[in-house]
């Protein structure tokens, strides 16, 4: 069922809303009958049934709600990566060059906290660290996004292996960020090689599994 905010913005179910607005008499009849059967609500001819949050949400809460409502519906990995990079990009440009933490777990949460520009109660740790990883590996702006999309397709029959490698890099996005900006290595530009490191990790795993099956 579509989700609509108090200002009328549709954050989940745009295609369903478009379909509802173009009902034929037959499909409108079937829709009204289904709503009455499942929700015990009789709609007027100009009414549609939608969901609305009980309170006003900030931008991150809206993003998280939309993501959870559309979980598994992204057309590709690139759709997800583009969405999170666009969402966090302004704040990524302001991120401190050094993030202090005593563990990878703490560092992931520090990244999420620093990118939580609208102070959501529960920042999205996974998406914020994915955005940081994508932001720090560009030879072109979309190179990391295209890379993940390609390898997701390559591992379409073994998606668990793909997710493990991806998670390893996303979880360490803060560590890569610190290394990229480490002034002890002024002549090394790690972000120029980060996409190659990710690419080769996927390729080596793919080759290993191919040899194991041979």
TrEMBL record:
InterPro entries: DdrB_dom. Residues 2-53 form the DdrB-like domain. It holds the Pfam family ddrB-ParB. This is DdrB-like domain-containing protein. The lineage of its organism: Bacteria, Pseudomonadati, Campylobacterota, Epsilonproteobacteria, Campylobacterales.
